């Protein structure tokens, strides 16, 4: 069993609480960085290709660079958001994905344990096969695709190297995207808006779209709860609470912005192209709820906040927001 140093949280005054966010340039990382910063944490983010000027530029596959960053900053908490999260990309680049999702995660866990930092490793509902939802933290994983397998291996590497770490499994995410393609939810908005031609939308896979601001809040609440309760460790689940197919999400987007949806066509067959997906990997979130931790933004509210900057009909923007 690896040695885990312990921080005496009572000695850490609020403005001196330090948190490191990996993948801080990504959709979830940006929201998590903002959440901790807004709540008086000394927050440092790291990224790679898009890091400068706001964040530290660090290649997480460079063990020495990771060691130096963590030793220099001495964070009390690390939220590890960086990952290759696109299943089809993982299939086409398995070695690179495994290095980031597994090897780098295990190394970060080891470095966190050395200084006694609380690590939150972000994982996925895709560790389950989707045949017997809802899934508790204690249910046996059975990933259908290589992405789910690499994230499950990452969980194992994290917990093997750091017995005090937390794993937070979450489903499909959406939020304040820099471009619509950044989220598998928001990417559908172009098909919704360009309603002059019909668009096929998946109506087979049951999803639980989850707002990144909610996940960021869960991470902060977990970190702050850990300061007063060292039993906060192991696996946790969080998710939005509205079950929707991509077809239903697209119809909700149209409804929110008063756009037609008659051109959207539900496809009820299971997808044949790309990586296998679980039919319904709903996560049971009761462990976090019992700790008094939670935040769930209604989909229509979150998606309106996320998408209105991308609305083509500017007249609608002016009437609603001015």
Describe the structure.
The chain is of the alpha/beta class and 322 residues long. It is built from eleven helices and eleven strands. It has helices at residues 27-38, 63-73, 87-92, 94-115, 146-161, 189-193, 212-226, 246-256, 286-290, 299-307, 314-321; strands at residues 18-22, 42-47, 56-57, 77-80, 118-124, 166-170, 173-174, 199-202, 210-211, 234-237, 264-267. Helix 5 links the parallel strand 5 and strand 6 (166-170). Helix 1 (27-38) packs across helix 7 (212-226). The longest helix is centred in the N-terminal third of the chain and has 22 residues, at 94-115.
The gyration radius over C-alpha positions equals: 20 Å
Poorly predicted runs are none
What order do the strands of the largest sheet run in, or round the barrel if closed? Answer: 3-2-1-4-5-6-10
What is the string of SSEs from the N terminus onward?
EHEEHEHHEHEEHEEHEHEHHH
What percent strand?
5-15%
Overall pLDDT confidence:
92
Count of DSSP-assigned helices: 11
**Main sheet attributes: strand count, strand direction, barrel closure:** 7 strands, parallel
The percent of residues in helical segments reads 25-40%
Structural class: alpha/beta
Distance linking N and C termini: 59 Å
Total beta-strand segments:
11
Approximate shape: globular
Summarize the structure.
This protein has 322 residues and is an alpha/beta fold. 37% of the residues lie in helices and 14% in strands. Helix 1 (27-38) packs across helix 7.
């Amino acid at each position: 069993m690896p040695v885990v140093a312990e921080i005496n949280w009572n000695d850490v005054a609020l403005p001196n609480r330090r948190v490191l966010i990996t993948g801080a340039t990504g959709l979830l990382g940006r929201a998590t960085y903002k959440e901790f910063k807004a709540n008086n944490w000394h927050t440092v983010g790291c990224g790679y290709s898009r890091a400068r000027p706001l964040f530290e530029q660090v290649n997480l596959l460079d063990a020495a660079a990771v060691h130096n960053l963590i030793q220099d900053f001495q964070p009390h908490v690390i939220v590890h958001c960086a990952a290759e999260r696109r299943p089809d990309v993982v299939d086409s680049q398995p070695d690179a994905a495994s290095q980031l999702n597994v090897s780098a995660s295990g190394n970060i866990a080891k470095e966190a344990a050395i200084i006694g930092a609380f690590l939150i490793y972000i994982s996925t509902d895709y560790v389950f096969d989707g045949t017997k939802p809802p899934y508790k933290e204690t249910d046996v994983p059975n990933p259908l695709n290589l992405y789910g397998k690499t994230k499950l291996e990452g969980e194992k590497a994290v917990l093997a190297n750091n017995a005090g770490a937390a794993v937070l499994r979450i489903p499909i995410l959406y939020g304040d995207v820099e471009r619509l393609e950044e989220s598998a939810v928001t990417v559908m908005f172009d098909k919704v808006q360009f309603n002059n031609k019909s668009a096929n939308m998946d109506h087979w896979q049951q999803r639980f779209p989850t707002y990144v601001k909610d996940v960021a809040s869960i991470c902060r609440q977990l970190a702050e709860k850990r300061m007063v309760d060292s039993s906060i460790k192991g696996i946790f689940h969080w998710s939005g609470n509205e079950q929707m197919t991509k077809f239903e999400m697209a119809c909700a987007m149209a409804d929110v912005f008063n756009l037609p949806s008659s051109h959207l066509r539900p496809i009820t067959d299971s997808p044949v192209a790309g990586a296998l997906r679980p039919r319904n990997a709903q996560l049971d979130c009761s462990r976090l709820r019992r700790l008094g931790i939670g935040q769930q933004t209604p989909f229509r509210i979150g998606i309106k906040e996320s998408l209105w900057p991308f609305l083509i009909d500017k007249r609608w923007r002016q009437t609603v927001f001015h």
